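Exercise 3.2. Students should predict the tertiary structure of the chain below and write it as structure tokens, then compare their answer with the key that follows.

Predict this chain's 3D structure.
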Amino acid sequence: MASDTQFFQQAVFAHLEGDAALTALLGGAKVHDRPPEGAAMPYVTLGMTRAFDAGTASEKAQEHLFTLHAWSSAGGRKETMSILEAVRLRMENLPAVNGAMRVVSMQAQGEDIAHDPDLRAFHGTLRFRAVTEPTAL
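Answer key:
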């Protein structure tokens, strides 16, 4: 299961990094697993990830629950909201087939925006659920 999860996460990163509109909003290729020390905001990070067997007796499948985070030090929520919207739109268009797996379903399941006083930043979170299955059994 770990290799399927890793492959799925790599596909998510590559898909986000390939979006010109998101790259423009971030001021460069700033989609990180963990931001580099001293990274300038805004940027996007991958948060919590979970994977579960979602197969049946006759078909293999995996369910992925994951979060993507937008970080902005701009003076309000507007930039964070714009980044979250670009991420959500991009994720809706995750290619149906990525190498060894096919994305059967991708759903945004919720969004939060809050001010982080310690970082003097706004932090937005998008929660997703995806179901994948192998392209070849």
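Discussion points: The chain has a mean pLDDT of 89. The longest strand covers residues 101-116.
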